[in-house]
Design goal:
Blueprint: H1 15-34, H2 39-42, H3 53-73, H4 101-121, H5 137-140, H6 150-176
Protein name: DinB family protein
InterPro entries: DinB/YfiT-like, MST-like
Organism: Isoptericola luteus
């Protein structure tokens, strides 16, 4: 039984289909949580950590692309760390001037479509390619030196979305009192 009216109703023995459904669910939650916020609310932080809803949206766009396209497929992507100040993966989130919510929502949804294509075309046991995000054994984080499997990447990206959707719930409630789905 779904926890809410918007939770995926897919109950499949196909793990890739489940991953796709839940990634769509959390992507949609992020879009809903940013819908209706004013430009000022999107670019103002109400949290001690200092991030803004627009910065979180920018982060999610780039995070998914880093893991599935640059990571798993090994494709070169332009500015993989564009969501961070000066492209430094350890720096705070950042949105370049002139980038707005609509552009980021479009990019988030396009990234979701690309993720679907990857999940349909590849086995979850397949390992990420060496040459993109995973330059070699030293970059993989795996004791055996191999890049992570597509299943591991799916779990990681899903938990990133779930955690950040929860963060956005709090930011939205502080911004205008909106709660719920």
């Amino acid at each position: 039984m779904p926890l809410s009216d918007v939770e995926p109703r897919l109950d499949s023995a196909d793990p890739a289909a489940q991953f796709a459904a839940y990634l769509d669910f959390y992507r949609s939650a992020v879009v809903r949580k940013t819908d209706g916020l004013t430009p000022d609310q999107l670019t103002t932080s109400l949290l001690p950590s200092g991030w803004t809803p627009l910065e979180l949206l920018m982060h999610l766009v780039h995070m998914e692309r880093r893991w599935f396209v640059w990571g798993f497929l090994g494709e070169q992507v332009e500015e993989p760390w564009r969501d961070h100040v000066d492209g430094d993966p350890h720096a705070a989130w950042h949105v370049p001037d002139g980038v707005g919510r609509d552009e980021l929502v479009d990019a988030l949804l396009a990234g979701g479509e690309r993720t679907h294509e990857i999940l349909v075309a590849h086995d979850l046991a397949a390992r990420g390619a060496v040459g993109g995000r995973f330059a070699g054994a030293e970059a993989s984080g795996d004791e055996a030196g191999a890049p992570p499997t597509l299943a591991w990447i799916c779990f990681h990206v899903l938990q990133e979305y779930a955690r950040h959707a929860g963060h956005l719930d709090v930011a939205r409630e502080l911004a205008d009192g909106a709660t719920g789905e």
